[in-house]
Amino acid sequence: MLLKVARLLLCGVLGGAVVAAAALPVAIVAGGSARAGGDTWESLPTDLATPRPAQISYVYANDGRTLITAFYDENRQDVPLDQVAPVLRQAVVAAEDTRFYEHHGVDIRGVARAFVSNSRGGAQQGASTLTMQYVRNVLKNDPGLTPQQHLDALADTPVRKVREMRYAQAIEKKLGKNEILQRYLNIAYFGAGAYGIAAAAQTYFGKSPAALTLPEAALLAGLLQSPDADNPISGDRTAALERRAYTLDAMARTRAITAPEAAAAAAADLRLAEQRPPNDCTSVAPEHNDWGFFCDYFRQWWNGRPEFGATPAERDELLRTGGFRIVTALDPGVQAAALAQSLGVYGYGNARSLPIAVVAPGSGRVQALAVNRHYSLEPGRDNTVNQLVAGGAGVAGYQAGSTFKMFTMLAALDAGMPLSTRFKAPSRLASIWPASGPGTCGGRWCPGNDNPSWMDGDRTMWNAFGRSVNTYFVWLEQQVGARRVVEMAQRLGITFRGAADAAMAGRADQWGSFTLGVASTTPLDLANAYAAVAAGGVYCEPLPALSITDPDGRRLDAGDPRCRQVVDPDVAAAATDAARCPVGRASAAGRCDGGTAENVSAILAGRPVAGKTGSSENNATETFAGFTPQVAAAGIAVNTDSPNDRVGAGISGAVNSAVAQTMAAALRGQPVLAFPPPSRRIAT
């Protein structure tokens, strides 16, 4: 039957004129197309029954209102019909399908009218109903179709017309008119890159579709016939106004509005308020350009989640087309404080940088990622899209020095050695690991203390950690075994991104210098590792999200914390007790006697706080990692482009202060919480 219909369309002649492909005689519609193929709802293409057009994904700060950016290929976001102004619905029906609420998918009167007009050589008329237009839009956007099938969905042929009619009639038997109208409004193209009524209202008038006025609604409805050519942003403004007037007249004819209302709306000035959502991390608002580094981390995290697709490319496509509402953990206030502190140490224009990361213990949620750089593709020292704070994409990180002594202490405590473990630390220690060259002792690696008069002597974990005694911790690493120390760091999320570090991790027994922080890490990895100690040994994967919701309002568990106990709580409490020594606070056991960052306690006055400083060889980097029960943060001063550019010991106090001030900002308004004391068994 379908072939017969196509032949009639191609060959039909009335009064000597060739019948236009868009017109069908009433007899064909009534007697053939409805039965051709016997289409039912169950036999429809999947996308027609359950359409999934590409939708924009929005990414917000932790308040759920402050937009960070969006990700999309097509600017589109579905909205329910009750969130669309009634005047817009009326305008679309009047302009495109006045008998929409009367026909059953195919308007026989419209077909007959178009057939007669087109056959007589009059103005060419189509006979597509809104339901048929919806079918066409779905099929042309179906990602499962081949390029040829996409072309066929738009081809001006009898075959396409009959297929649309069959599908439209099947849809109308299943769905109500308002459901069809809602689907149509969410998939239709309105020009200027705006797909669907929500994007159109925002693009042209900077408002929601519920807030559209009569002149605005009529203008948008008028664009549907020729959205690229007629739109007033990139097309013909005069044509747009003419189409608005046409729509208003049609609304008056259908009695949706009165003739005076139509005339007044037609005379109204066209006031555009063009607004398009940002797209991707480089489009973050200029006044919050620093959020780009967090955005970049979020995207890396998303593309690494297997639940979003089998490959990074599939995951990225889902982000750009899935229509998610993502509320992140980014706290704008904490971020602003972290950036101000970073800039206070090294301003814009300085080759050196201070990347700072802030994490919430017990959830792993990342509250801030700041550095004295602009997130930008523009050339210049201050501009970069390299992930300087969280690492990845070729950035392995930086040496964090003695902050890694935390992992040696945890491994020793975990092996049953108490905090009171004593060793008479010498100025230099001939270790068990073989080495050659300068600084060796009889063919063995021979590390020394930076300040022998202050560091040498009888030490426990408390004062060795407080004074950062190298020879004590190398000795301690020997007692517990370097492999156990490296494994402890990995338990707490330290990732070896550099090839040399990854190779050494593979033969960890030989990595005696690991305790001195020679492996590259990032402020985020370090802050999150210390956050696990703050959380009583509970490690949580770093998480940029508070919630992720799909277009149907379902919350995805990908946005929930993923935590596990990796260290015994008493071991974590003991390590925390020793970590109070470096920052000038007394341990629960009262065993601290000197620290390398005593200025921190004054900045966080009245709050229990712990932490550790770190200096890499020749003070090439200076690091501080600190934590309270509610927040952990880390910063590393470094020249990210030139490791040989030594930042110097003189910057360490400023780094300690910058991280502590950032923590103070994150804790503002929060209750004061105490660390749990370690048991007598492990603290004696």
TrEMBL record:
InterPro entries, A to Z: Beta-lactam/transpept-like, Glyco_trans_51, Glycosyltr_51/Transpeptidase, Lysozyme-like_dom_sf, PBP_transglycosylase, PCN-bd_Tpept
UniProt KW keywords: Carboxypeptidase, Glycosyltransferase, Hydrolase, Multifunctional enzyme, Protease, Signal, Transferase
Ranges of residues in domain Penicillin-binding protein transpeptidase: 358-654
Leader sequence residues: 1-22
GO cellular component: outer membrane-bounded periplasmic space
Catalytic activity, as annotated: Preferential cleavage: (Ac)2-L-Lys-D-Ala-|-D-Ala. Also transpeptidation of peptidyl-alanyl moieties that are N-acyl substituents of D-alanine; [GlcNAc-(1->4)-Mur2Ac(oyl-L-Ala-gamma-D-Glu-L-Lys-D-Ala-D-Ala)](n)-di-trans,octa-cis-undecaprenyl diphosphate + beta-D-GlcNAc-(1->4)-Mur2Ac(oyl-L-Ala-gamma-D-Glu-L-Lys-D-Ala-D-Ala)-di-trans,octa-cis-undecaprenyl diphosphate = [GlcNAc-(1->4)-Mur2Ac(oyl-L-Ala-gamma-D-Glu-L-Lys-D-Ala-D-Ala)](n+1)-di-trans,octa-cis-undecaprenyl diphosphate + di-trans,octa-cis-undecaprenyl diphosphate + H(+)
GO biological process, any: peptidoglycan biosynthetic process
This protein's record includes keyword Transferase: yes
Molecular-function GO terms, alphabetical: penicillin binding; peptidoglycan glycosyltransferase activity; serine-type D-Ala-D-Ala carboxypeptidase activity
Segments forming domain Glycosyl transferase family: 67-251
Protein name according to UniProt: Penicillin-binding protein
Organism (species): Dactylosporangium matsuzakiense
UniProt lineage: Bacteria, Bacillati, Actinomycetota, Actinomycetes, Micromonosporales
